[in-house]
Structure formats: structure tokens, C-alpha cells
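Data card: per-record layout.
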Amino acid sequence: MTATEWKPTACNLCYANCGILARVDEETGRVIEKVKGDRAHPVSRGYLCNKASRINYYQNNRDRLNTPLRKRQDGTFEPVSWDTAIREVAARFAAIRDRHGGEKIFYYGGGGQGNHLGGTHALALRSALGIRYRSNALAQEKTGLAWMNTRMLGGSWHGDFHRCDVAIIVGKNPWQSNGMQRARVLMRDIGKDPQRTLIVLDPRVTETAELADIHLQVRPGTDVWCIMAILGYLAQHDLLDLEWISEHTVGNERILDQLQAVPVADYAEFAGLSLELVERAANAIGSTRKIALYEDLGVEMSPYSTLCSYLNILLFTLTGAFATEGGMHLVNGLVQMLAEGGSAPVADENGHEIGRRVTPVTGARIVSGLTPCNSISEEILTEHPDRFRAMLIESANPIHSLADAKRLREAVEALEFVVVIDVAMTETTELADYVLPASSQYEKFEATFFPSEFPDNFFHLRRPLMEPLPGTMEEAEIHARLVEALGVFDPGELDELKRAAERGLDDFAQAILPAMAETKVARHISYVLYRTLGPTLPYGAAAAAPLWGLCQRHVTSNADAVRAAGHDGEGLALGNALFQAIVENESGIIVSKNRVGDHTQWRMPDRRIQLGIGEMNDEIDTLSDYRLPERTDEFPLLLCAGERRSYTANTIIRDPRWMKSNNPASLATNPADARKYGLTDAGRARLVTRRGEATVLVELDERVPAGTISLPNGLGMHYPDANDERNRTGVYLNELTDIEDRDPWVGTPYHKHVRARLEAIA
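The structure for this 762-residue chain is written out next.
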């Protein structure tokens, strides 16, 4: 294959990871000069939004790292060899483990939007060091939803938007942020179809809201009262499927009584909605069981976020829209990104969780194995003997992406030892004692564990488009060398497994299973697979070796669905066939094809949905007090800190030149507020919150509700210009956010509800 040929890969800028074809320039072999949709991709099928064409700004930028770095006493970095870096990093981590215990080493990251194989390989290193506590960006977004999913359904859900009668979009703008395959096509098709209803719940008139049949334009922060009003109306007008509820749920008595008592008109009014509009939405929902719902950060990073997730699950369970054609389904992908594992949570007689896992210092609730992001600094900045002493940060930039960046920076600087594995010099990398430069997502085998659909679950293992940047190393090799430097396995200890792998997958499968009975092999299985099976894989796909284990696990409970997707075999042979298909198909494959209502949809111990969640039922009783974070004369506005726009993305694209908008970093405000505070279009203003301030460029936008302002996500990073001066484009949002504004249950921050004020600058 020559450099000028089109090569299959995927966009790495959002959850959807659409399949793309990329053409690399012939002269250097390093520049992605052209991108188009990949029609062979099993789910995106050639779909592409405007952002994917700009991925070369990720691949080739001035912040790329190309040598391991060690921090000097004066705070500057010096280059060191890979051998030196691996030896010294392993020794420093081992010393902390031996002196304080491995649980004092905190792991953050494990993969960005298109970069998850590295996190899989980190499992072996975490085991070797005894690391118990970890987190990543999902813990400041999705853990409230994950907590409810685990306790109510036993898994994560996805709506059948292709066949639904009613589509409900809560706190999300798929037009800009996707979240589902072919999002713009789907939203446009549903909005145009007179037989279908698109309902959007959002304070702002987004591009998706403009397509909606019903736009529930709530006052910011009042989503919970809107959803409660809809549920109350459904209950009080006999629009719930009581027969289905009786057959398929438990613990429903209290919530059904609570819904009968909802003051629907009062809650609608408090949410800023007419009763007539709420009734229209409720009647549309109550008229069908073909309901597809998607919730996202608009409610998950706002007041009552976990309660909103609970109520959204009620919208499709109380109406019988679960495990039915055109309704909601539990996804069944190769990897469950937010799965508790083990047995279901234990609750007392009133539905309150007991025996939960918590963090060592503050006792914060751990969900899906993730420490709340807002608790990290509190677990460090203390004299408590169980405080975290060191951090390993991989493919993540928490100093930029987590709330209250100033306090988190203080916490990271207080640690005894910090190592960062990343492709670029980021705000977090600057604080590291050692920096280990990773190859980019387009220079190695890579995969993304996010996308899961129903009924077709796909997986895309991507091959490298080009050779790694000299001086970099893929995460699989970094973690393997660190495990070896820690002396976990003796020389020759894995030779028998290596020989079995050389004879083929069938022999290897027969050899590895009894070997896993040995605890050390099982605990370090990602390393074992990489060093034994990895070298035998075609195309240099050694880093994909841990996927073999995931395939075998997948077929043990989903054999029929795997065969329905076109893979043949029984037992280990079926897992081998699935694994080989993943490695061979450059554009991705369907790994399982489920049937509506099959056994994968009923995952709770009694195969019934648990509706009695005591913490949420108690919180519902407080809604009649109409409590919200108080706005004051000092901070009369609400800032949405992180809006998705056409030219904003996650922070892996650091070069601001990728944005083609005239004012990509501007603050959007309603013209009425502009007049009130003496602001002008394209004028400057000082934005002030409780934690900091920034200078912003004002853009008047009537789609933004009065009393609210909005800034885009993914900006505010230092980036070197042509003279290597590090400048900042846009606002560093998390210098304005506050960790104290957070969900009381799982600690997710109120990024969409930041109290602020604007002051005009002449």
C-alpha cells in the first residue's frame, strides 16, 4: 500500500468514532492531507460531520513529545533515554508502593475519545503496583447515570432512534455532539416525519431544538421539575403501563404514589413552561411504547443530575418502552465502559444502598470503580495517613478538564511523584516528574470502547496510518517494560505460552486457560497476552492481544448474538473466530446482533427492573421546596461552561488553527442581557465567578435564554506560536469552576450551572 492510498481509520473527536478513510501525503508520509467517510464502516456508513476533516491538527502539532523527559530541580525538563526513564519510573513507583502501599498511588486516565487500548494494558501495571483507586473524565460526567443504571437495570442503555415513534433528547445537542451514529441524519429524519415526534429538553434553542416538534425550553437547572411534571401527568391521566410495571419491575409502590401527588401545573410553571406544552409532551410519550431517549451533560452536569438520570429511566420503564421494538435496550458491546462488575448493589428495606465502596480519606462514593473527580484534590491535600502520594496519568489532561483547576494543580504539585504518559505537552504534563511520550492514535493499533448500539454492536480495531514519530512508544510497550522493570515475571516464565501462541489460536486457548488459574497470570493478563500472543498476530497487531480475552468473555454469555452477526463456532472456537474477524477487518465489524427482549436485557438478579431507589425517592420529596443554587446580586448570571460548537472538540486538538469559525472562542449572551450590562456585539467583557475571572469576546445570540451565558469547550490551552511563545486561545473554563458546586451523590460538577457576572470593558 502506498502513502497516497486511502486507509481506513476512525475520527477520534467524539463518542461516535465514525469510520473514515484518510489519505497520507506521499512526500513526508506523516501528514493526513484528506479525509472522507468510510462507506464500509458497519454503522457510520460514510457519515461524517465537519470536524473529522481536521484531525491532522491532532496528528501533527507543535506540542508533540518525542523523547522521555525528567524534571530537573529548577522545574525544567531534560531528555533521557527510554531505558533510563523506564528504570527510574519503575523504581520510584516501587519505592512508594513499598513504603506507603500501592493504594497510595492514584491512576487517572486510561484513554481518550479514540484511545483505549492503552488503558487495557495499564491493568497489568496497576496490578503490579497494587493500585486500587482510579478515575477518568467519565467520573465528572456519567457516574450518576452509571449508578442508576447499575442499581435499576444492571447495564447501560441506548434508544432505537431508527424505529421509535417518540425521540426524547434531554440536555444534549446531537447536531454538534453526536452521541449516536449518523446523528444529524437521524435528527433531521425524525423531525421531518409527521408520524413521529421529536421532543427536546434544553434551555437553549440549539440546532437540534430547531428541528423539534416540542421544545421544552426549561429555565436552567429546572430540568428535574419538568421531567417530574411529565411523569406526574402520565400517572394522573392513566398513561402509565401498569400491567407491564407489575410484571417487569419491583419496588414501584413509593414512586407511583409520589407521581400521583405531583403538582403538575406548579412544577411546569417553575420550570418556565406552559402547562399545555408539558401536556403535549406527556400525551405523545403516553401514546406509544416506541420511545427512544438520550440524556447527556446538560443534565448530568447540572443541579439534581443523578435524580434526573433516575427520572429519565422512569420515562421509558413506567411506559413499558423497555426491551421492545423501537424502544430502549441495554447495550451489549465487547466492552462495558461503565460497569460495576460483580454482584448487584445491596440495598436496605427502604431501597438505600448499603456497603458501598468509598474513597479512603473523604468517604466519597465510588461508582463503576471510579473515584469522583471533584474528590481527587481532597484526597491529596490533607495530612490523613491514607492520602494519595503519587499519580500515574495516562492519555488525559485533568488539570485542564476537571473543575477548579487551581486547586487541582496545587494538589498534583503536593504529590511525591507524578508520571504522565501522553502525546503532547499539556497543562498536566508540565507538572510531571517524568513524561513518557506516546505514539499518536494514528501511529499504532488503537480502538475505542465507547460506541455501543442495539441491536447491532460493533467494534473497530484501527491499524496505524503511518510509522510512529521517532522517540515515541505505544502505551502497550510502555506498560510492558514497566511491568518487566518491576520484576513481576522471571525470565522464561512465559515461554510455554509463547510456544503455544506460535502454534495457533486453538493451541494458545488450550494453554492459557489453565495458566490463568495461577493468580499472577490472571492479575497481569493484559501483559501476558501482549508478550505471548501479541508477537504472533498479523499486521504487527501485538497491542490488540488483550482483545482476545474480551472476545472469549463476550461469547460466553452472548454466543447466539455473536453467531447472528456472522461468526461461526462453539466455545473457544467462536471467541477465536470473533477475535480473528476483528483483527482482519480494517473498517470494523458487528460483534453481536441481539434480539429485542432477549436474555441480555434482563440483568438484575430476579430479571426485574428495580424502581425503588431510596436516595432518589427521598430527594423527590424535597422538590416541593423548589431549591436551586442561589443567584445573588454579585453573581446574577448562569454560565454554561462548555458548549459544543461546530469548531470545538475535546482537548486532544491543541492547535487553535484547526477552528474555521470567525469567533470560535466567543461568549454567547442574550441581547437583553447585553443591554442590561452595557455589552456590545464583538465587545470585550470581564467574566467573573467565585473562583476566578477571564476576559471574553461577547457575541449576541437570541437563542441563549436571558440570564444565561455560554462558552465553548476545549479551549484555553497554552499552545506555542511560530516563535515558540505559548499563548492561550479562549477561556480556561476550569479556572472559573468550583468543586463545591457538585452533585451530592456522586460528585459530578455543575459545569452547566456556574454562577457568574459580566462587566463591560471599554
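Known properties of this structure: The longest strand covers residues 693-700. The chain has a mean pLDDT of 95.

See the next section for split statistics.
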